[in-house]
Amino acid sequence: MTAMTRPLLLLAAVAALAAGCGGANGSTATTSMTTRTDTKAATVTTATLKAGVRTAIRANVHLSTYVLWHNQIPKWAAQSTRGPALKALRSAAAARKKQGIQIKNLSGGYTVSSITLSPSYATATAVVKSHQRVAPYSAGRRLGRAITENDHARIQLHRLGSSGRFVVWKVATG
Range with the lowest mean pLDDT among 24-33, 72-81, 157-166? Predict the structure, then answer.
């Protein structure tokens, strides 16, 4: 592994959530809370909130895969990812673009190991395990061998208002 591919591998690990459909968290919660909006009261269960977390992670995986190959942030990025996570994607894409490198996801998937909602239900933390094979490309040609990575990430998510929607806010691998 060259000095240049190691950062790419780490970046791929951050985006390693890239290929697959979400995992499962075997717990089903029945606790509910009431959230007031300007016009009406709505009941949102913790199961609904956890589903919102999974949806945000799945959308972030799609975004990460897109950014790895295209080295640019699409207009629809903020639908799933904001804050430091979006800033990190933008920075990594710019660095790869400057080097003329693209990362293609060959195979893999991810599993959501756990989801923890904050007591206020305003934020959530998810632990995601990923496994994938990626390959670096330059000028349309593959550079060397495919890289296999097994990693896990701790993902912080922020809830959008009183809805059941979340956005990925921060990703830490390790």
Answer: 24-33
- d(CA 47, CA 21) in angstroms, rounded, equals 18
- Cα–Cα dist 70/97, whole Å: 9
Pick the more confident residue, 24 or 150: 150
Q: Give the side-chain half-sphere CA count within 13 A for 91.
A: 9
- Give which of 93, 77, 116 is closest to 14, Cα–Cα: 93
Domain boundaries, the chain: 5-173
The token duo for 12 is 């791929």
CATH number of 5-173: 3.10.450
Read off the pLDDT of residues 112-168 as tens digits, 9 standing for 90 and up. 999 999 999 999 999 999 999 999 999 989 998 999 999 999 999 999 999 999 999
CB distance 25 to 112 below 8 Å: yes
Per DSSP, helices labelled H in the chain are: 5-14, 46-70, 83-99
3-state secondary structure of 105: strand
